[in-house]
Design a protein that fits this description.
The protein is of the alpha+beta class. Helix content is 20%, strand content 35%. The protein is globular and about 50 Å long.
Length: 127
């Protein structure tokens, strides 16, 4: 068994798509629109085949994701080396994204940084 994809709602679908394509090398599929409900989405595919569905639909409530909360906490991306983690963390920081933590070695041995990016949702960059 494998996880087929993970999905997240966003307010700005195009900005979210551009973020994942620009910083994490996602390849975007064609957009989907349900004209009856206003639902829109893109499937993004990453180098190893993992997929993320980003979605937008009128009336979906926002949450304050600037603080920790129950539910999914972050999506982690393995970049392959500490140098790549450092470089992408620095690039995102200089582009105005908030670095929540790191880069650092965590207590369980991961080298990682955590970035608040898409509408405050967190991504983790790791080796």
């Amino acid at each position: 068994m494998k996880i087929e994809h993970v999905a997240m709602y966003v307010n700005d679908l195009e900005a979210a798509r551009q973020f994942f394509v620009r910083y994490l090398g996602a390849v975007s599929g064609d957009g989907y629109v349900n004209t009856r409900t206003g639902f829109r989405s893109y499937f993004l595919t990453f180098e190893d085949g993992a997929r993320l569905e980003i979605m937008n639909k009128p009336g979906v409530a926002s949450q304050n994701s600037s603080n920790e909360h129950l539910g999914y906490a972050h999506i982690a991306f393995s970049l392959g080396s500490r140098e790549q983690v450092d470089a992408l963390t620095n690039q995102m920081a200089s582009d105005g994204y908030a670095v929540v933590s790191g880069p650092r070695v965590t207590g369980d041995g991961y080298y990682e940084s955590c970035i608040a990016c898409i509408e405050g949702n967190r991504i983790e960059l790791t080796v």
